[in-house]
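One chain shown below:
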Amino acid sequence: QRLSTPLVLWGQAPVRSIGFIGPQKLIAAYEHEEVALWDLVTGTKVAFDSRELLPTTLIATNSARRLIATAGNRSGIEIRSVSNLQTVADLPAAEAGVTAMRFSQSGEVFAFAVRKGPVRVYSVNEWRQPRFEIPATDQLVSSIAVSLDDQTVALGRSDQMVQLLDSNDGHLVDSIPLENDGPSVVEFCQDG
């Protein structure tokens, strides 16, 4: 459905990050103050969390499981329910902050990377312990993607290298060197 006029969604501070949950919901993280869930059909704020959080810098959404992940500059990751923004899980992250995070399209896998810390991959059915953890390296992971079949996790690194890992145990499947300058951005094609 296409809007005939722009929809303006207001918050108390500048927006740091947004994510979509299906075609009718948007999650917005505002600097310093709140994370709000908006209904795009009516333009109304349907849920929000206004605790005093450190600034939220990243959002990942999962329409299949109706989950939202939010991460701040120097905080862990909160996994929240779309229906009421209540916290489902708190995942620890390094003091230096989360650099990338992503749900798989199926909603079964969640992965994140931390500056100067490990990469962790979780099953959304088990938040207490990651499926696997890759130890920290000197290379910043700036992008994460999960394959459509949930079997492979791709890491885009600052050394122009893409690593492909088995999402069940973390073993290295392949390393692909890139010929560009800057951090790698990774994504899987819709056909796999």
About this structure: The chain has a mean pLDDT of 78. DSSP finds no helices and 16 strands in the chain. The first strand starts at residue 15 and ends at 21.
